[in-house]
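ok so for the tutorial part 2 we go from a plain amino acid sequence to predicted structure tokens. step 1 is just haveing the sequence, like this:
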Amino acid sequence: MRRYLLLAVTLLMAWTNSAEAQRVVVPTPQYYLPANGFVELDNSATIGYTDDTLMPAARYLAERLGAKYSGDAEADILLSLDEDFATEQYRLYVGRPQITITGGGYGGVFNGIVTLMQLMPNEVFCGVPAKRYRVDGCVIEDAPRFSHRGFMLDVARTWIDMEAVKAYIDLLAYHKINVLRLHLTDDEGWRIEIKSHPELAEVGGFRGGDSPVKPRYGRWNERWGGYYTQEDMREIIEYAAVRNIEVMPEIDLPGHSLCMASIHPEILCGYTPSNRASLGYDTRSAFCPSKEANYELLKDVIDEICQLFPTKYIHIGGDEVEMSQWRSCPDCRAFMAAQGMSDTKQLQAYFMTRIADMVASHGKVASVWNEAIDGGHLPPSTRVYGWEGVAECRQAAAKGYSTVVMPGQYFYFDMKQTPREPGHDWAAIFDARKVYEFTLRKVGFTEAEMANVVGLESSFFSEIYLSHNPESADYLHYQTFPRMVAFAETAWSSSDERSWEEFYARLVAHYDRMDCMGIAYRLVPPSVSYADGMLTASVDDGSDIYYKREPMEVEMLYTAPIETTTPAEYSFVARRGRAASAEAAVAAHFRTITPTFKLTSSMGSSERFSFEKAQEYGRLARTTRSADVGDWVQYTFEKPVMCRRMKVATGNFQLPRYNIENGYVEVSYDGSSFERVGELEDGVFYIMYPTRAIKAVRITSTSKGNGASWVSIQPPTIYPSL
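step 2 — the prediction. this is what the tokens look like for a chain of 722 residues:
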């Protein structure tokens, strides 16, 4: 290594400052030493390799360059291995007589390939090979800090088909993410074929309509979903492996099993629950740990999963178990007494140990969510994924478990990025900067705890995705990029001394490349100011700015400050190809009012979350049961309200299953006669620019149940007239 560094220092004297020479590499390498001169490649270029295991990598690069590949050591680009390198370490040399990429293993060589592609014109990422590529001379040596740089994709709540998964794998590979964990099962879906129990996917892969799996997130009126056959999954695994990505499965147990229970109710605890509030729908979601037959069923599942996935690690869940079901079960209570258990957490540890042993019988290692270790020690080899918070991650590492750090407040990309954007908010509201600035040391990890951290993982849970056109990847992209770029660098970088300002400059330069990748990423919203009668909007990334003036919905290109006496009428967004920002405006645009109102419903008021809480604004209320056809919710204002728009909403913003899925909205101007104004969309309706003051608003359900035991009701969001 030293010989190359000395060479590079010498070459640095002749460093050229051309635009091509200053290509942005993400994540940034440890050593990037530019040299004088450049190499040009055209369609006649050849990719060679010195080891047959590197042939898929050579083919991958050749396809992107429109080049040829062979085992020729005299090729224009040569891929080789060096046993003295760590597995994912690489050295890239761009010069004469050839470009060389040397890695400690396949992963190292592939990492070098990605870096080489980033040194080339952006067209290499566009899917159509260019006629000529220029690469400036350099020596780059690099290796990742963490061996596990993961991303978890939830395909259970919202179905994401094989081609869409493969397309996302490409985006992960371009940023040197090396693990894709697929959340394959949950209350809302079973997405992987099990040949010994085909009903799990054939029935559990679909919900709504005539399916016994009731929907909890949208699309009640249609049978909707899908699943991966084992052949599909083998194709995904192979596709990912070429790109240095290991595919890990997650079968979420013993909770989050409502879907399986809808198909096999015998897995549930032996008591009869009261389902009055849920209109007869059984909401129990946990396996009964006292039933030996359950372990026989799960052994069939685990056997096939272990045989299907080459990965060493099999995730078996362990999160958010509704243990009240076990406390209500006489069989569980008797089993605990016989085993000398005093706490249901011990019962969970027993269950998880049984499943972990099944995994171990195949020479593999069980992975679990952090709650799974609360009731006692699982096998020491168990890998723990800390999601609830930093403290839980540290506790797992302190206990000696191999730990993947993925606290929701930093790495859950289903979270909102600002309060007015879509997404969850239960963990935190954060953008790419918070992701980038995360370090283990900054959040309190000791050296001993850090020694047990094997990596970082980000995630996207998909409850809300269903409401954002999952047939298009735009919402998934918006939520995950550029946070994924920041995460890639955070998981790769060996230094805790990082500058957001420096990274942001590189990120903006990376936008052109992401455009070629086809990513509908999130832009920073425009800055908006108003002074001396002029409304001004600006961005710092070169994107275009568009504006709308209420009540018109047509976007206009912003080219100069706008002269106006009513700045609150205007809102602005930044756009760049498929990329877009959140809405921005002066503060008055977002101002709301809170008139006194009374909330009533045919479904009754929860004692704990009473209607009075919603009447306080900022608080949600609950009904005593789910909504049947004809059930209603009504807001009646003490004095008629004049406004420019009003939002009425059922369901938690972050838990849409508690809504009235289908229904219509009526408005009354006198408090007695109502007129229909529109249909609910995902439990929400906007009354836009009413011409008269509103006395009351009523929501009426046209669907039976929502898969839960209540309906959540939000206070109205009311924007005053301008």
